[in-house]
Amino acid sequence: MLNSEIYTKITEILSDLLDRPISLSPETTAADVPGWDSFNHINLIISIEAEFRIKFQTAEMETMHNVGALVDRIEKKLAEQGR
Fold it and tell me: What is the mean pLDDT of the chain?
């Protein structure tokens, strides 16, 4: 899966959770997006895991400080699965 496809999917998921269109960049953090609170963060991670059929470990989530790091981690997990 291409990097741009991952960004598109994450943007769609978060837009649906927040019920409004948003724009994400690699540098975007939760603090940059109104409404991206801890509750929505958990829902985002669960939705991403379901969409991409991956599972994050707690230690991995602690290292993802922005959207770019999240996308990188998704790419690595997909590569490990041969997708």
Answer: 94
